[in-house]
Q: What sequence folds into this?
């Protein structure tokens, strides 16, 4: 049976995608579908595909610095189209001033610096899902 809710992880580094997906699956089991996308454009397509299949994307975890569309633009689009989706951004490049602006613009739940602490990420995800 396919879960009715999904968590989407977007990053241009496959190792990061697989690591986060594995951590999420270990913590939350089969309650969610775990989707990954190697770019913001493919992330948007995944959300639309899942929505068309009747699966609600409830959380998006996205990197900021990616080729093509950056994570802040991607999450702003996601928030505009799907305001109930919770958003988390990861980055090793943004400073706190930029991050505070982005938090307000896109209703960002959390911002974590790379490399992130797995337990902290999972705690934030738990809060987002409740």
A:
């Amino acid at each position: 049976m396919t879960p009715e809710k999904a968590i989407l992880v977007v990053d241009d580094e496959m190792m990061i995608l697989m690591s986060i997906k594995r951590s999420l699956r270990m913590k939350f089991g089969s309650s969610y579908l775990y989707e990954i996308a190697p770019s913001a454009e493919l992330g948007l397509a995944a959300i639309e595909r899942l929505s068309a299949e009747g699966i609600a994307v409830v959380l998006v975890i996205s990197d900021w610095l990616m080729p093509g569309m950056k994570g802040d633009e991607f999450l702003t689009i996601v928030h505009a189209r799907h305001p109930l989706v919770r958003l988390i951004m990861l980055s090793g490049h943004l400073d706190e001033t930029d991050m505070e602006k982005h938090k307000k613009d896109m209703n960002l739940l959390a911002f974590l610096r790379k490399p992130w602490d797995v337990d902290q990420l999972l705690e934030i995800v738990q809060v987002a899902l409740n």
Q: What stands out?
A: Residues 5-129 form a domain with the Rossmann fold fold (CATH 3.40.50.2300). The radius of gyration is 13 Å.
